[in-house]
Amino acid sequence: GQRVMSEASARAARKMLRKVVSEGTASFAEVEGYQVGGKTGTADKPKPRGGYYDDKVIATFASIFPAHDPKYVLIVTLDEPSIIAHGEERRTAGWTATPVAAEMIGRVAPLLGLRPQVEPAEVTGITLTSN
User: Fold this and answer.
1) So what's the pLDDT on residue 1?
2) Among 31, 38, 68, 102, which is most buried by a count of CB atoms within 10 Å?
3) 78 DSSP 8-state letter
């Protein structure tokens, strides 16, 4: 399709989305060999007659894979999710929607013909010395 942002901006966005999984709120979405990138979102659930519930959310995780060369998008939305982890009730997308997405990606990616790969490394800090 038609390019809607510069190549540099797209590369920077993919890098940020990858870091959300590798270093951020979506760490449970990590799927070995598939370099998932994405964004979590947890929204307070609206009441039918206005306002928001104190204890109900809608949790979403929008993902791309592989992040360095995206081929697929997967969006998981859960209505009123809740789990008990480490003795506490958790409702955020990072705790609820991301593990669901990871399980789906891990099962679907091979069926789509994607082979697991070692994540491309970013080379930094190389210095040359002469003898």
Assistant:
1) 82
2) 38
3) E
pTM for this structure? Answer: 0.85
Domains of the chain: 7-111 (3.40.710.10)
Q: Give the DSSP H/E element, type plus range, for residue 58.
A: strand 52-65
CB 93 within 8 A of CB 40: yes
d(CA 4, CA 30): 28
Two structure tokens written together for 121: 């490394």
Answer whether 67's CB lies under 8 Å from 14's CB.
yes
**Tokens describing residue 79:** 């209505």
Contact 77, 100 (CB under 8 A): no
Q: How many C-beta neighbours within 10 Å does residue 17 have? A: 21
- Assess contact for 14 and 20: CB atoms under 8 A: no
Across 63-82, average pLDDT: 96
Q: Read off the pLDDT of each residue in 76-82 and give the average, rounded to a whole number.
A: 97
